[in-house]
Task: structure prediction
Amino acid sequence: VIKACIRRDVDTAFRYGGDEFVVILPETDKTHARIAAERIQKQFGALKYGRTTLSVGISEASSEDDADSIVKRTDEALYESKRAGRAQITLA
Result:
């Protein structure tokens, strides 16, 4: 589902662990990342995986970030989406 909703040869998607996935959208701000996330959620919902929902956390990398800080910030946004009732998109 994710790969069908992102730009081929530009964006990258992979399983991060368990039921978590990472999508890297180069040269994409949070507004456009949200649009991509909404597209993924819509396609995911159309396939009807039972009662499974898709929660999303989004953050934008800055020059001050290292890998750990961006992952931590994005993970916190993801868990905020889950606390907000699942099937949510949270921008960090």
